[in-house]
């Protein structure tokens, strides 16, 4: 009877965890995550900060999307290997924030709400894209060609 080692001990899995650890332990990734958390908190509170809380539908939308954005961007440092795909969700939330003044029911497209949501949405979209690209850039920078090997491998 043959026994197989646990998948947790597989060298590829250990390398992947190491790569994700390197991707999130650098100052750039930590700054992106911090700015993402601040962006989400501001998005949630923006109706009351920017002064369009009377537009109830958009105020509730911004509150919900701000909380969702914080949750998407908040788990990267501690568990990037399990949450890096959520960065694309953060990008979608940023895009939704940009178009929400025109999509949400009611007359909520005032200058104040539109300018606020476009600026916050663009920042959220860019931060989500930066976090999504963190693992790919780490993978590209760590690739080397092994002599005689069939293709690129990780160091």
Query: Which class of secondary structure composition applies to the elements?
Result: mainly alpha
Roughly how many Å apart are the termini? 34 Å
Shape estimate: elongated
Chain-averaged pLDDT: 76
Strand order of the largest sheet: 1-2
Total strands: 2
Q: What amount of the residues lies in strands?
A: under 5%
Oligomeric state as shown: single chain
Radius of gyration: 20 Å
By DSSP (H or I, 4+ residues per run), the number of helices equals 6
Helix content: over 70%
Biggest sheet character: 2 strands, antiparallel
- The sequence of SSEs as H and E is HHHHHHEE
Give the low-confidence spans.
143-151
Task: Tell me what the structure shows.
By secondary structure, this protein is mainly alpha-helical. The protein contains six helices and two strands; from the N terminus they run ααααααββ. The chain has a two-stranded antiparallel sheet. A hairpin with a 6-residue loop joins β1 and β2. About 6% of the residues have low confidence.
Summarize this entry quickly:
By secondary structure, the protein is mostly helical. 74% of the residues lie in helices and 4% in strands.
